[in-house]
């Protein structure tokens, strides 16, 4: 993601996460927190159509626990493999960035609503499995999914 991508990504954020507010500020904070947060966009020839936010958890460590914090695709671009592409194409870039710090990826965690069909995407792309259900965490029950032993 580049600074110029933030306004378009904020529109996607607002459409994907309707209960959240201040989309531009939220994304800008994540964007500015590199390398703790690594943010990537999916774009067509003319537009930003999605983004992904990866975040390192619990400090910079030699074996990294990484969170797939947010993944969003514009409504008109959904069901076209863009979410899958964002995960599959950005994760090697994240691993490369970690390697610059002599770190390796140990675990990926994801939280999402229990009714979110993206659970299947997380399972098929990174091997995440449901670890537990957390009742009424944000707007509903959430699942915590974990992909282990990724180094």
UniProtKB/TrEMBL annotation:
InterPro entries: Acyl_CoA_acyltransferase, GNAT_dom. Residues 1-150 form the N-acetyltransferase domain. This is N-acetyltransferase. Keywords: Transferase. It comes from the Bacteria. Gene3D superfamilies: 3.40.630.30. GO terms for molecular function: acyltransferase activity, transferring groups other than amino-acyl groups. The keyword 4Fe-4S does not apply.
